[in-house]
Every structure is written in structure tokens, then in C-alpha cells.
Amino acid sequence: MEFDSAVRVLFVDDEPALLHAIRDYLTIIHSLEVDITNDPADAIQSGQLFSYDCLVVDYDMPDMDGITLLKAIRQVDPDIPVIVFTGKSREEVVIEAINNGADFYLQKGGNAEELFAELAHDIGKAARRFRAERALTESEQLYRAVVEDQTEFICQMDPEGAIRFVNSSFAKYISREPENLIGSDFFSLFGEGGENLKEAPDICDPDNPVVHAEIRNIRSDGSKSDLHWTLRLLFDSSFEPREILAVGRDISAQKEVARQTSIQRDLALELAMVSSVDMVLELSLKAVVKLTGMDTGSVYLRDRVTGTVVKSLDCGPHRRSLCQFMDIWQNDNVDLLAVLAGTSRYYSQTDLSRFEAPFLSMVIVPVQRYDEVTGWFVVGSDTMNEVPGTYRSSLETVVSQIGNVIARIQAEDALRDALIESEERYMQLSESSPDAIAILSSHNRPVYLNPAALFLFGVHSFDEFMTRPLNEYFDSASYPAVSDMLSLSFSLRRPNSCEALMWSRLGREIYAELIAVPITQSGDTAVLLIIRNRTEQKLSERALAESERHFRELADLLPEPVFETDACGHVTFCNQGAHSLLAPGNDTTLIGVSFLQFFSDGDQGKLGTVLDEVKADPAVRNGDFTVRAKDGGERSVLLSLSPVFRDTVYDGVRGVIVDITEMKQYQETLQRTIEEKDVLFRELHHRVKNNMQVISSLLQLQEEYIEDERLISAIHDCEQRIASMALVHETLYRSDSLSGISFATYLENLAEEVISSIATVRDIRAEIDVGDIRFNLDTVVTLGLIINELMVNSMKYAFTGKGKGIISVCMKHGEGSYVISYADDGVGLPPDFSIDSSSSLGMRLVRVLTRQLLGSVTVGDSEDGPGARFTIQFPVRE
Question: Could you tell me the pTM of the whole model?
Fold first, then answer.
């Protein structure tokens, strides 16, 4: 059995074994909730009787038989299903049980399983029916409650219109009790309107069972109302009408709102078209009378000259009485002040009795312009006791428009006068305007040209210009756009612009910017066409475009890649050289690509730093970088970057890339060659020094076989000269560079060599101050021989009889020459000494070697005391 909730059963029997057996079977096998009792009286008195879905009672019980129990149950609950369960099989017992309200009858005995199964089947069938009937009853109760609460009229009738049910809303509308309407003819309740409503169901069929109808009904109190009914026909299985359901509502209020809205809308449309104050008042007063149904009215407005409120218009049969009423009313300061404050005043028959007016009701509505009351509308009726509340809002809405409409008309009149004056003033301005100005009528026909326009088109007068149609002054490709622009200006009443190619009378090209402005010319719609000559600008743009084309062509001719980027580093321009070096494919463009990605990963950070420097300091930056070439390899390049500023704002960079891969490879090869030659030269100088030492050693060996002191001294001097030259090669060999020799280092080594080789005294010091000067090999050899001869001479003769001495050598760099000062603090030179006439080999070498340097030598005494001084001056050689 399938139920939303478990079925509850009460089983009454005097046999305990049977009670428990059936309860266990129904609970376990069929999932029923079974309560059992052996006391019939307990079953009746139980307060839970209404909670059961079915009762099973035994027929034969000692205290109360099943029929008596059945009768007692039916008095408490006539609807609950009851199954009589007995061992008797007499026919009269079955009939008696059925007649007293039993739903099923089961006879005990036979197969227990079949008996229990049949009992379970009957319980399910009875419970299912009982629950369905109970749900239907609850649904009908709920439906009736909902229908009764509806504000709409709801009726149920037979196919002939006899009422079966009405809700309270409809009964209240008809002013009758609902039970008194049952059986009445529905259609006869509405008089003539009911006859029209009665014909509506005739057009319904099973496919279109619904029909709508509106009727005018006159109620019992004489009032009229508009009703809207929806009729639905219900058909039986034979497609014959079975029932009519009608739903209606009173639409009188909606109809009245629609009528008032229509009057207001029509008035608003009429007022939008009029340009006369008198017409505004006439139309508004007619609308007020039509809106309220009141027959007499008048309009009072404040005179703009005197400032007093006077009657401007009236209508209706009681105009004189209304005028007399207003003369009296204007002396009522209380009501007058209220209207002047913007408050409408409504009068009933009681209110008007003190004025002795022939009106039953009256209303005075102020006419306002912004916050100022400029007059009022007065409407009276001799048939209405008071102005209905449904009219008041619409009445005040209609009158509220009038002040603004009058203000608009007065403003338009003032604007029209100002416009005429403005047109005259504008014509004077246009005559002196440097721009060409034309005025076109609604058919694109020129009606005016200023002198600048006549000059632009090369004509002498307007008549001469009009000898050709307007379109012939435009290029055929440009005129459609001009025509569309003019059409938009006329239709949308807003300015438009475009560019066009025009021709003068003599065929001269005119590139023009056209601006069309809608205007009013003498009260008619027109367009003011401003024609600005942009010929020079257009030619300049052409020249600029041609210049850019030439620039691009020249840039493409350059073998070096040239490019330009925006502020974000994306390429905006590149020549063919850049494409050939960097583009990964022939069809690949570089435009829009970040130029940083063309550089190696190691160089991107360095390049970012360079870009930051370019932004901060607008100067050209150069640097060596490595780029990824289109063939996948890497190329060494020299990159030059300069910033691009537009309106002082940084806008990117321009760059030139020079491929220096082959040059760097050549430089590397050249560097290796130089290094190899440097090694060879050092080895050569080393060998020369060794050879000179060999020569010096040979001379020393020869000294051992010579006894003549003069000859030994001469050989010894030769050894010293050879040593000075060998020292040059030794210094050059040990120098970091072969291009020059440090003169200071060489002199220090030379002084040490000379002093150690000629030990005439014990303490001889050399002071060298020649600065950081480097000479080539020839110069150092020559200077070395000169200083060597002077030092040897000092060592031999200057310090005789002295225990110590000082030899100083200093050099200064003057303008275009070097000056070497050699001095000692020895005994000095003989008084008659002259280096030019000296016959000694050493002095002769000094003279000869100085001339080789293109210099001169002078001799004198020491400035610090006794001793000799030699000054050697020679020019600087490039």
C-alpha cells in the first residue's frame, strides 16, 4: 500500500489471540499502524476516534454486538470507514450491517492468510477513499473561503443563467443577501446591459470557452457604473455546456480616470501648438468645464501693466451671476489670501448660502507661474451639491499647466523679438567674419553668402554664385557626405560637421571643414554653414606624409636597423634592416613587439638600466649588447638610444643598431696578434740586453790584459755606456707597455748602476724628480747616454776629497719643450770650462746627443752652492 503517511486502524474484538495476530500481520506485512481493544465502550469513548483511517469491529461480542457498536460510531463520525468482521454467514446479518453504515463485511474462518490479505485489501481501499473524500471536503472549504474573500464579483450558474452561487462582494453590489440570489436569472440583474451580456456565451465553444464583456449598469439608487465581466463555459464529455463561471469587477473608477486623462492629454497637445494667450485660456476653460461637468466658468488674470487681477474670459449660462459672485468674493480677505497662497477653494451649497449665489457648488483654482499666483479659474454648477473628490486632482493638474504655458508663450514672444534683433546683429558679424559663411534653406538652397564666401569661391556677387547649383561646387565623391550632414542638421536640430573637397568658380581646389548649425532665419528653419579653408593645412599634411614616406624609404635603404618605440617599449616603427636582423620570419612584423625581447637574457637587465637613464637624462646613450638574430644565433651590436619627448612628456626611444659581430671578431684576432708581437718584442729587447751584457763582459775580460790606465779608463767608460743602453732594453722588457718607457724608473735604475760601478766615495745619493713621463725607445737611449756621461763625469771628478755627495736630476714640461736640469754638489767645474770647446769624449757625446734631440745644453754653477749644473732643453715630439 502506498500512502503519504501510515494508515491508522482500530480493531475491536473480544478474542485476544485474533487481535494480536491481525495486528502483527498488518503492521509487519503492510506497515499499518494498528491499535487493538476488546472493549467496545472504550472504542466509542476514545477521544482519538477521529484520528483513525478505518475501524474493524467484531460482530459477536459479549457486552455489545457489532451492529450496536456500528450505530454508536455513526452517531459520532458518519464518514469513517467501518469493516464488520464476524464468524456468522447469515444473509440478514450482512444486510443489517450494510444498512447501518458498514463499508465492508468479512466472514471469519477458512485460510487465515487469505483472510488477512483480504482484510488488508479492504482496509487500504476504504482508507484511500476516506482520505480522498476528506481532502476534497477541505479543498472545497478552502475554495469557498478564498472566493468569499475576493473583492471581485464571482458567480456560478447553470447554462441558462440560473445562479447557483455568488460571493459576498457581488451580493453587496446588488444590495441583496447571497441566499436570496440563488436561482435568480443572472442576466436579468443588469437591465439592458444584461441583454448584451447574455449574448456573450453564444460565441463560446470548447476550444474558446472564455469571453469578455463590458456593460453599463444602473443600480437601484439610480447611480451608473461600468462593469467588466469574464465568462467561462464549462463543457461536459459530450461538449454540451454544463456550467457558467462569471468573474466581474466595477471599472467605473478606471473609466473615469481614463476619461480625465484623455481630456488632460488632448489639452496638453493643443496647448503645445498654440501661440496665443487668448487661445490658451479658451481651450483650458473648455477642458475644465468638460472635465467637471460644471456649466459656468471664468478666468481671471493679473494685468501685466496695472498689476490688478481682471476677468479675461468667461462662458456658460450664469456668467453674470458668476461675475457678481466674484465681486463679492474678492472682498473676503480670508479666502482671497488662501488662493493667493496657492490653495484651491471648494464650496458646497452650504458654503455658498452666505453669498446669495445661484450655484450649488463652486471651485476657485489658482493659476501659478513658478511660485507666484497670477490669477485663478472659477467654475460653478447649479446641479451638483459639491465638487466630487475624483475631479479635484485632475482639475488642479489642468490649471497648473496654464501658468507655465502662458509664461512659455510670453517668453517665445520676447525670444522672437530678440531673435529678430539677433539676426540683424549676426548679419553684421558675418559680413566681417574671416570664415566663409552661407545660410541654406530647408531644400539646401543658399539664401546668403558673406564676403569671405564670395572671395573663397571666386565670385563677385551672390547672383553669380547661384548661376551654378550647389553640388557643382563640391567634388562628386564628397557631396553625398555633405548632403547627409545637412539632412541630419535639419532633422535632428543639432550641429554636425564633415570635411569635403570643393572647387572655386575657376576650378581651384579647396579643402574645407564644414560646420552645419541649425538656426531660424526669418521664422523659418535654416542651416548656418561655416566653411573653413583648410587647403594650406591639407597641403602641409600631404607634404608631411610625403616627407614621412621619404624618411621611411631612406630608413629602409640604411643597412643598420633603425627603430622607434612607445613609452612602454613596444616597437612603433622599424626599417627593413631591423626586420632583416630581428624578425623570425619574412611575414612576421615587429610592430607592437617589445624590443627588449630581441636582446639576450643577460643584457635585458643592463638595457633596462640604460632606458631608465635615458628617461632621466635626455642624452644619447651607447652600449654594446647581444641580440638574438632571426637565424637563432646571437650577434654583437652597438646600440645607440635617444629619448622621444612629445609636449615635454616621455613617449619612447629611437634607436640605431650597428652589427659589430665581424668587427669584434677582427678586434679579438688583432688583439691576439698584438699580444703575440708584444711577446716577440719583449724577447727581442731581452736578447739585445743580453748581447750588450755579453759585449760588456768581453770588455771587462779585455781589461785584465791591459796595463795602460788611460786605456783601461776608456774601456771602462765604454762599458758604462753599453750598460746604460742595455738598461733601456731591460726597462722596456719589464714594462707593462712597449709603446713607451717610464723615464723616472729608468733614471733611478741608471743612477743606481752608475753609483755602484764607480765607488769613488762612500756616500753618493741620487735625487730623481722627472714626473710621470714616458718616452719612446730612441729618446730614452739618447737621454740615457747623456745622463750617463754627466753622472760618470761627476763620479770621477766632482767628489774628490769629499765623503758624500748628491746628484739631482729634475725635468719640467714647458710649452712645447722639456727642460732637464742636472746638478751635483761637488767641487764644481774649472773656471774656464766650456762644453763647446771641451775635447773630452764624454762632453763631445753630450753635445752630439743633444743635437740629435734637436735641443741645446748650457753649463753653469749650482744654484745651491758649489758644484756643476747642466741644463738640457729639447722640443716635444708628437
Answer: 0.38
